[in-house]
Design a protein that fits this description.
Layout: H1 4-19, H2 22-29, H3 35-54, H4 62-75, H5 77-87, H6 92-97, H7 100-112, H8 118-135, H9 144-167, H10 175-198, H11 206-233, H12 236-240, H13 245-258, H14 264-279, H15 285-288, H16 296-312
Helix pairs in contact: 1-11, 1-13, 2-11, 3-10, 3-11, 4-9, 4-10, 5-9, 7-8, 7-9, 8-14, 10-11
Length: 313
């Protein structure tokens, strides 16, 4: 069991690492100025695919719970994130969003009854400071709406993360189905907003279709499945402290693929943020023994089902 914990953390970490590639894919492969359409094509096809694989629909109260989680983690988070990215200079949206771990620490105290520790708060502060060194650029006056959108996106995802942990999953339902429910609900929420704000879908060439396929499959379907699987088996704070890996990955990809320079200050920031991410994985003593719950068998079956479908395809 102990040997499986680092593997579980590593697999969950693949989600924010994948999300860190979103910027380069969006700028290099997709049509410009269509953030809501991009969010829609990330969420809805991925959700429908996972629903087809899982073949399980919500029952009873889980219809509204799935809708709430889908709105928080996907439907509201995507548009707010894109709005903040468009209105804030440099990496300010990522800096504001990096308060997510601190929000999760506070929400976990309120909704999960987990008393915040000094170590968790300090780790969250160091993570946010490290991210700021990596992505922050000199800029003019900040846009108030952009700052509010960035804070709201962080609050939305943080609340969704804690509620996902609080509500768990229905008996016999694995993370594959839960992820499909949320992505579908979130995508259906984004669809009318995208249509009203951006109009009809743009014409897509092969390059754009490839970019959208990557975002929907690897960047969303697989990544969010790993993320919600991790939430079910790790503490909410452990999972959210993996979030800084996203802007760190974006910086590394920008350096490797786009030739963007990394300054010594950025390298220091990367070291601080990565160190905070590692420190955030130290589970509280009372949570270590509960790391693998009764849902483990369902998780493994879900993983086998997903692998089996992929092999048959």
């Amino acid at each position: 069991m102990a040997a499986s914990r680092p593997a579980l953390i590593a697999l969950t970490a693949l989600a924010p690492v994948s999300w860190g590639t979103t910027y380069v894919v969006t700028t290099e492969f997709l049509p410009p100025d269509r953030p809501l359409f991009t969010g829609l094509l990330r969420a809805l096809p991925a959700g429908l695919l996972l629903l087809a694989l899982a073949r399980v629909l919500p029952r009873g109260a889980w219809w509204w719970k799935a809708a709430v989680l889908g709105a928080l983690n996907i439907g509201a988070f995507f548009p707010l994130l894109f709005l903040s990215a468009y209105r804030l200079p440099g990496g300010m949206a990522a800096v504001v969003g990096s308060v997510g771990p601190l929000l999760v620490v506070g929400l976990s105290a309120v909704l999960l009854g987990q008393r915040p520790t000094v170590r968790a708060v300090l780790t969250g502060v160091v993570a946010a400071f490290g991210v700021s060194l990596v992505v922050l650029r000199a800029a003019g006056a900040l846009d108030a709406l952009g700052v509010l959108a960035a804070l709201a996106s962080a609050a939305s995802m943080s609340t969704g993360t804690v509620l996902t942990k609080k509500w768990g999953r229905p008996d016999g339902v694995g993370p594959l189905a839960l992820t499909g429910w949320q992505l579908t609900a979130g995508g259906l929420l984004i669809a009318p907003v995208a249509l009203l704000a951006e109009g009809a879908p743009p014409a897509l060439d092969g390059r754009a279709l490839g970019g959208y396929a990557y975002l929907a499959l690897a960047n969303t379907a697989v990544a969010y499945w790993l993320w919600f699987r991790g939430i079910g088996r790790l503490s909410a704070t452990q999972v959210t402290f993996l979030g800084p890996l996203s802007p760190l990955t974006a910086a590394v990809v920008g350096w490797a693929a786009l030739g963007q320079a990394l300054t010594p200050v950025q390298l220091v920031g990367m070291a601080l943020a990565f160190g905070a991410t590692v420190a955030g994985q130290i589970a509280p003593k009372d949570a270590r023994g509960q790391l693998f719950s009764s849902a483990e068998k369902s998780d493994r079956k879900d993983s086998m089902d997903l692998t089996g479908h992929a092999l048959r395809r």
